[in-house]
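Project channel, design review

CF: Before we commit to the Halapricum desulfuricans constructs, I'd like one complete example in the thread so the newer folks can see what an input/output pair looks like. Taking MoaD-like protein.
RD: sounds good, go ahead.
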Amino acid sequence: MERIERTFRGISARLARHYLSKLGGTIVDETTVEGPDWTATLSTETVEIGPSIELTEVTVVVEGDDETVPVLVESFARKAMRAGG
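CF: and here is what came back for MoaD-like protein:
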C-alpha cells in the first residue's frame, strides 16, 4: 500500500475535492474522497506568509494501490498548480 502526503497553498479544500472527483473519486464528506483503489484525506490550515499575508494550505494524504497513488498525486498536483494565484 502506497501513502503520499503533499501540501498545496492557494487552493481551497472545496476545489481540492472537486479536482479529486474529476480524477475518478467520489466525495464522501468534507475531508474524504474515495476512488476505486485509493482514498484521499484532506485537511486545511491558514498559514502566514510574511508579516501580513495569509494563505490557505491544503494537505492531501492519498493512500491506496502502489501503482495508482503516485500517478493520481501527480495528476492532482498539475491541476492544483494551475489553480494557485
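RD: helpful, thanks. DSSP finds two helices and five strands in the chain.
CF: The beta strands are 2-9, 26-29, 32-34, 38-49, 53-64.
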